[in-house]
Amino acid sequence: MWINVTTVGDLLDQRAERSHREALVMPEARMTYPHLSHASDVVAAGLMQLGIGHGDKVGILMPNCASYIETLFGAAKLGAITVPINARLKAPELRHIITHADIKALLVATDPAGADHTATLNAAFPDLHRQRAGALNLTAAPQLRTIVNLTRAASGCLDRSQFEARAATTDVARVKALQQRVRIRDVALLMYTSGTTSTPKGCLLTHEAVVRQAAAVAQTRLLLNEEDVMWNPLPLFHCGGIVPLLGVISVGAKYCHTGHFEAGHALEMIDGERCTVLYPAFEAIWRAVLDHPKFADYDLSTVRVVMNVATPRLLAEFEARMPWARQISSYGSTECATNLTIPRPDEPYDVRIATVGTPVAGMEIKIVDPSTGAELPVGRMGELCFRGYSQFEGYYKDPEHSAQSIDTQGWFHTGDRARIREDGCVEYGGRLKDMLKVGGENVAAAEIEDFLAQLPGVAVAQVVAAPDPRYQEVPAAFIECVPGTVLSESGVIESCRGQIASYKVPRYVRFVDDWPMSGTKIKKSELLARLAAELAAQHETSH
Questions:
Q1: 136 neighbors 146 (Cβ within 8 angstroms)
Q2: Which one of 145, 170, 202 terminates a domain?
Q3: pLDDT band at residue 194, thresholds of 50, 70 and 90?
Q4: Residue 197: pLDDT above 50?
């Protein structure tokens, strides 16, 4: 594949010149490529009138909607840096992101699923209601000059009509002049990682990183063409929502998003739009679709590939449920602009189910001893490192952490365990820190989770290290049951005995209906905190 890379804004406009096909389908909008291109020009013009230019930070705090995507492309055309903000953040977290990222303009829309971002903003910035719209001077966020509320009028904010009126006074030719000055190696996105165990870190991703990587995955791994229709339920503040969209645009295909994820609505869209490539990525999302009580009522025969990050046992189960569609898995992170490795759907079953494939062309990987940094031979489990064009530029305003993560030869140390097979495919081994020390024995949480996932009635399993006075740590399992199934703690534990080593058998089993999430990741730290509080309360009661 030739290296044909461009900027985020030009990627869309080039496609709009060549195609009048549908580009985007969302619950509230259907847009062709020319329509989406024009809408993003309007946003760019409005941002320009707000004083936004090259290198300025533009925050997006919205549900998954067409306005989100229009803003993403509009900011990119000016050479501004888009900061997608996790819509689940509470006031203190939101204040931290807005302040740390030096956001100059923030575009907001209310979440129809219930989250009121206006109220959250007022809680984050108590002096907002006293401010003049378009000329903010907030104590906690001195860089933030403008908030545009696209949903309703709010104190201290411009509304949609005011924003669009400003855009109407700007000649689009001025937007195009700035668009031509954007460099491929300019930063396009400042994306904050989920922060499952610590304060979120801001990853700087260039136009080249996201556009080139998106095209490579779409064209050489997913094998997309303009006839394809991708369904993606991932949030647009997540790399897995944005970068696949760019990949779809690179081939002129159609991108479908259900907005707020609900399994029934997802099935309606996959069937109704005749989707061919599905990108649920996370087992909890795909399990909800497969286990929906009306799953059999929908026609999913057009689906040819499903991308899920799950254990081999779960991937095998998923493919058995839809044998006409090829399951593939992947290894990725925000730091490499999503997929570092991913198989093709036409590769052998063992490659697709048992591995996360080979690196995308242009990216290098190696496995090192996490203690010494020495490179390990094929077949040895160690820490996965990578470098290449889609690698992030470092953590924003955090040179110390950047230097700790990226060595002097440019290798990013992921903190993940993996090994490379003889055929070059990568097997994932879980987080280095997601290890338990049970009486001196090292145990990967992923190993226990993999076993639990195959037990009848188990939909999703997560394992954490619970403190223990005798063994230092013991496994504690949190389980979401298959709908209609009832499991017991003693029953799960008994199913493990004799099947896995005694030190791997969970000491505690707890059942959940809803997972504490940070973006798309389950927050194991909160699961552990729940268990610790429960055990502490029991200890107090017994004494």
A1: yes
A2: 202
A3: low
A4: no
> Residue 5 carries which side chain, given as an amino acid letter?
V
For the ranges 157-166, 403-412, 508-517, the lowest mean pLDDT is seen at: 508-517
The CATH number assigned to the domain holding 70 equals: 3.40.50.980
Please state, in angstroms and rounded to a whole number, the distance separating the CA atoms of residues 309 and 240. 12
Q: Is 534 domain-assigned?
A: yes
Count of structural domains within the chain: 2
- Look up residue 533 and give its two tokens: 């509080």
> pLDDT for 11-22, tens place per residue?
999 999 999 999
Q: What is the DSSP letter of 463?
A: E
- Print the domain residue range for 87: 33-202
On whether residue 364 sits in a domain, the answer given is no
Structural contact between residues 477 and 448, judged by C-beta atoms closer than 8 angstroms: yes
Beta-bridge mates of residue 24: 31, 255
Nearest to 442 by CA among 454, 450, 430, 458: 430
pLDDT at residue number 450: 82
Contact 36, 12 (CB under 8 A): yes
In-domain check, residue 48: yes
Q: How far apart are CA 346 and CA 98, in angstroms?
A: 44
Show the tokens assigned to 200: 């979120």
DSSP string for residues in 95-132: HHHHHHTTEEEEEE---TTS--HHHHHHHH-TTGGGSP
* Percentage of the residues of the chain whose pLDDT score is greater than 70: 97
Nearest in space to 501 (alpha carbons), one of 461, 474, 466: 474
293 three-state secondary structure: coil
pTM: 0.85
Q: pLDDT at residue 441 above 90?
A: no
Q: Provide the 8-state DSSP code for 482.
A: P
Residue 23 lies in a domain: no
